[in-house]
Specification:
alpha+beta
Length: 75
């Protein structure tokens, strides 16, 4: 079953660490981590070791404003 997750952490951008909060749709926590790694790798060119996720929580989809989450849980 598909779930919504909210990840909070930082990634290296140049010489600074940039904070992020991202809502993702995945089957489990491992799938959400893979999506986050691939997203930052393709969009920002960041290696996996420079993406640090400090918390990963399952959320109620109605709390999210992310279009992918809203679309996945549309009734």
């Amino acid at each position: 079953m598909v779930k919504a997750f909210r990840a909070v952490g930082t990634f290296r951008s140049g010489v600074k660490n940039q904070p992020f909060t991202i809502d993702v749709v995945a089957d489990d926590e491992d799938g959400a981590m893979e999506y986050i790694y691939s997203n930052f790798g393709s969009r920002h060119g960041v290696k996996r070791r420079f993406v640090i996720v400090s918390s990963m929580d399952e959320i109620n989809p109605s709390e999210s404003t992310e279009p992918r989450v809203i679309s996945a849980f549309r009734e």
